[in-house]
Amino acid sequence: MMKTQDTLNQRVVIITSERAASDNSLAYMIGFAVSISTALDIVMICKDRSMNQYLEGEPDITTALDSILDTGKRYGLDLAVELCSTSHIFRLKDNLSKKKGLSMILLGPSVNHNKVIDLRKILKEIPVPVLAVSKMQRFQHLRAVTELEAQHG
Fold first, then answer.
1. In the CATH hierarchy, which top-level class contains the domain 5-152?
2. Rounded to whole angstroms, how far apart are CA atoms 119 and 92?
3. Could you tell me the residue ranges of all domains in the chain?
């Protein structure tokens, strides 16, 4: 797919879990996102315990984030990675609604099927398409399923 000036100015947000850094789902989502934009934000939702470990310099989480940022630099992406603890999940909607040029949100398998936090309900007020990646697609090619009913009825 050829990127036009319009797509280059758009920002894609990938919302995933801390586990996604170690499986194939994040790589597939990044691959899909860069086919339509060079500006990505990755939000990793993590347990409060993991957030504390990251703030204390836990090497596993720090290494995963550094690896993602290095990949972004290697491919010339405008890439930002942020952590969001589960106890602050409702701030996510406010932060996303303020993003300039936001054109799409990709939900990773572990956050899409989360029984505790219903991200679709939280994100339905943001007027951009929300694409969900299923668990089965983690090891297959990415076939994002468009879910526009909340925004476009």
1. alpha beta
2. 10
3. 5-152
